[in-house]
Design goal:
With about 220 residues, the chain is an all-alpha fold. About 70% of the residues lie in helices and about 0% in strands. The chain contains 7 helices and no strands. Helix 3 packs antiparallel against helix 7. The termini are far apart. About 15% of the residues are buried.
Length: about 220
Amino acid sequence: MAQAMASMAGSVRLITAPTSNTRATTQPRPGMIMTVRASAQGAGETDQQTSRRGVIGLVAAGLAVGGFGGVVLAEGKPILVGPPPPPSGGLPGTLNSDQARDLALPYKNRFYLQPLTPSEAAARAKESAKDILNVKALIDKKAWPYVQNDLRSKAEYLRFDLNTVISAKPKDEKKFLKELTGKLFEDITNLDHAAKIKSTPEAEKYYAETVSTLNDVLAKLG
């Protein structure tokens, strides 16, 4: 509409433009009259095109809103909320997965392993001791990374289980067992260091010491 008004205004200025003949201002030339009619006709066509575009835009917007509303309504299904899941325990080593852990403690003192009774802990300690003794084959093959992995994984189980067993012992036996287990883990640490520096002589030396101390500890477990 604004374009049409601007076109018509321009045509009128052409008609009333001053000339040397004063009568030309009151009697427009035929060419100018036709120009005004053409502008008016073009303005009408422009208004019709603008109206059509507006109607088409409204229809398209209505269809889009209607389609989106249909999608939203189609997805509006109720969600059933059941009870909380049961504890995930049941598999070996998973019974403590739902128990809180004290993250302020050092890594070796945090609660990661499944707690057992003293008798069960003693049985698992013996299994861990067997796995530690089996690293001799890896030492002979000079498979140092595997030696370290087996020592570290089994030593943590052994430490945890020995602490469980010692805590159930009488007071007069606890001190001696703590000193003996301290010597055992010192030997295991030295063996781990020998594997780290890839020294076969030191690995064989500290393996022998570890075996000797480990047998003493297992003898006290009963």
